[in-house]
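Handout, tutorial session.
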Amino acid sequence: MAFALLFGGAGLAAWKLDWLSGNGGTVSFGKAPGPAAASASAAPGAGESSPGAPSPSASPGGDPDVLLPTGPRSDFRQTAKLDDGTVIAKARLAGAKSGFEGDVWVWTPKEYAEAKYEKSAFPVLIALPGGNGFPSNYWSDRSLGLQKAISEGVQAGTSLPFIVVMPVLNPDSKYYYDGADIPGQPKMGTWIAEDVPAFAKANFRTYKSRDGWAFMGSSSGAFVGMKTVLQYPDRFKAVIASGGEIVPDSPLWKGHQAEMDANNPERLAQKLIDANGPEVFINFQIGTKESGRERMTTFQQSYGKGPVKMTIRDIQNGEHNGWHYVRGMKEGSLEWISKVLKAPQPATG
């Protein structure tokens, strides 16, 4: 009986915490905040438009590269709230191209809801986790500080105000799928390269050109981000790849050598060099207390030429974890990628 009361009290406390924080509530991104509102409304049912309706945003302010939300709008539910009032929210995405259905988390900076940016697009940073990458994406956990680092960088003038999109990386926790369409398996390459960007375009003001699209990732997610940029340089321009692998290594490639080669960054980089473009930008991050720098150096020496621009950032005393990779981003990688991508443009006058 005492156990039941204790458990019930803990459950009530957790319920109160979620209720007070707004977790689980409907989120409507991009509505201009009132005097007491945050950059995203998180109260259940608070002024939410029909989930299937395109955004009623104003028309672009003269930049033909601006793409207004195409719809249909997803049903977002808050999963975390930051100290500045911005929120991280989750939606379920049924990939039209891949046929895979999974969760995607999103965070928008407070600038996204400001009236002076209502006609502007924002650059998108697709953040990929390492490890299993399923059923969650650990970049959606506020404790890692990714979103806070971006906000602080915006205030310091060292980061663009990115929309951060955080999808699941794999379809299960049993295998690693190399972010690729491995024959006979869920099409995770199509999920990452097509369905997730289409989801972002459906819900947010984004850029049509690749100048507004990039990846960041750690470990296995770093590999997928780098591979996808090299594979689709017409869609994505840059990647921050932290502590990542260089070549595909999923056990599911067995018997599919040709398809595996088509997803090998070494071959993709050489193909881009032979074609003389377009330019792509790769920023490796590696902690001085982890292994893997030699692989990065060899890759840079072999393929960091012509249109393939590469840098390596050493994170002093850094280990193989998200906290240290965020520190590396604060120390310079966010500024690096912000110089490569297109900034939102505030209204004039």
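The second record follows below. Compare its token runs with those of the first.
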Amino acid sequence: MATSLQALSAPAAVRLRAPLPGLAVCAAAAAAALVAARLAGGISPLLIAIVLGALLANTTSLPASTEPGLAVASRRLLRIGVALLGLQLLVTDVLALGWGVLGLVVAVVAGGIAGTMALGRVLGLDWTQRLLVACGFSICGAAAVAAVDGVVDARKQHVVTSVALVVVFGTAMIPGLPLAASALGLDTTQAGMWAGAAIHEVAQVVAAGEAVDTGSAGALGASALTVAVTVKLARVAMLAPVVAWIGAVSRRRNREQTEVRRPPLVPLFLLGFLGCVALRATGLLPDPVLDVARLTQTALLTAAMFALGTGVRLDVLRGVGWRPFALAAASTVWVSAIALTGILLLG
């Protein structure tokens, strides 16, 4: 009896041990990225991690033993990080923006996705590729890409390409948007709203908001950083309904394809996201707990970005052609234009 139990537990032990080497590499890379981000100041550890992963993948060959852990980090850790993102979202702050700004957020997300999907169709990209780009650029960057992947089961190449595009174009907006806001004569409040409504990643929004405040010392208007982050989190709040809708659409698309795995209507990590939003709304969590949760979320997403970065290979990106890059550029301009138009209309 003991021998048979040991035989049964051996495969389970192997499965548990298999991801450890890759997870250890991800943990070390995440720690390095977090330290580098603190030393550099104003640079997102997520961006550092994905660049580090890409550099490593294109300059050396990772051992095969790291592959299971990298897979776990790029999917499971990423989804846990997305769920914990809900603890950053304070519903009262979002509602305090007013109906005009909330309408702007809905217009950016809905219009951004619809426009990007249409442009992607013109460019000849398949449904999942343009959907990942559309949601990543219209909602919240890599986290949105991961969330959508959870309900459409996209190809790994499409996911990696979409995340890489978020990094490239979102990072370019960090200096670009503050310069454009200054050229257009926007005050700090308007510039912060534009950053929050147009830039892809939360961390990129923070960097751009800080840049606006630094370059506008003494200018009229509220802190650009505060406004930018609040508007951005309102976009993050759109993640749940959008992903639920995409899940329903994806299930309908696969209904007649019995060999295709039907994705869940509402994935578990999305329920976790909503649960975290509800928990934050209770006001029961003290600031130290929220600080630990924020650090944990950042660490998990940083490790996941490194794992995704190891899939960003130059030969693979060259193989995807120019169309995803053209779609990313067009989507960036389109989302930014919708946001700016709404801000000018709001006055």
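Points raised in discussion: The radius of gyration is 20 Å.
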